[in-house]
Amino acid sequence: VSANQTNTIVNTVTVSSLTTADPNTINNISTATTSLIPTADLVVTKDFSPNPVTPGRNLTYGISVINNGPSNATNVKLIDTISDSLDDVVYSIDGGLTFNSLSSYVFDIGTLAVDFLENIIIIGRVKSSILDSISNTAIVTSSVFDPVTINNIVSITSPVRPIADISLEKSLLTPIVFPGGTIVYTNIIRNSGSSD
Predict the structure, then answer these.
(1) CA 150 to CA 178: how far, in whole Å?
(2) SS3 for 193?
C-alpha cells in the first residue's frame, strides 16, 4: 500500500470459463473494499549547546522531527515555547544558512513523508541576569493517527553557569600630599561580562 494512500482500496475478481457455459454468472464477480487508516509514528528529538550556557551568551537548540511511517504525515506542526530567559531569538530551517526572527512558537512543517527528517535550529541570547537552569519542551502533532505518542514530546534542561570578568582600576588623585594632608584614591570596578 502506498504511503500516501488515505481512502479505500477496492479489489474486484472475475471468474469465467472459455469452454463451459455458466448458468449463473451473477456469482462470478466478487468485490472486496478495504478501509485505510493512515498511521504515522512521528518522533521529535532535541539537543542544546553549549553545556553549560553562560548568561549573556547564545544558547542553541537543535530540533529534529522524523516520520517513522508507515504512512505520510499531514498537517505536521512543531510547537516549541521558548523561555523568556532568552532574548533576540532567531530560527533556521535550512541548516543554519539563513535565520529569521522567531515571532511564533508554532512551526508549520506540512506533509512529512515516511523516513523524512525536518531539522530546525533556534538560537537565543541568555539574559545576563539569569542564574537558574533553562527548561524547554517541544511537541510535534499531525492530522494522522500516531500509534506511539510518548515520543511526540521532548523536554530538556540547560544548566547555567554565570561568568563575570571583574576588574579593578585604582588611581591616585593627590600625587603630592603634605604631612597632615589627605590622600585621595579613586577605585573603578568594571564588569566586562558576560553575566551580571
Answers:
(1) 80
(2) strand
Region for 78 from its dihedrals, namely left if φ exceeds 0, alpha if ψ lies in -120 to 50, beta otherwise: beta
Query: Which residues, including other chains, have CB under 8 Å from residue 117's CB and lie 6 or more apart?
Result: 64, 65, 66
Q: pTM higher than 0.85 for the full model?
A: no
Query: CA dist 187 to 160, 171, 173, 184, Å?
Result: 31, 7, 10, 10
* Cβ neighbours around 29 below 10 Å, total: 11
Round to the nearest angstrom and report the end-to-end CA distance of the chain: 60
CA dihedral 102, 107, 108, 110 (to 10 degrees): 130
d(CA 45, CA 146): 16
Q: Look over the chain and give the mean of its residue pLDDT values, rounded to a whole number.
A: 90
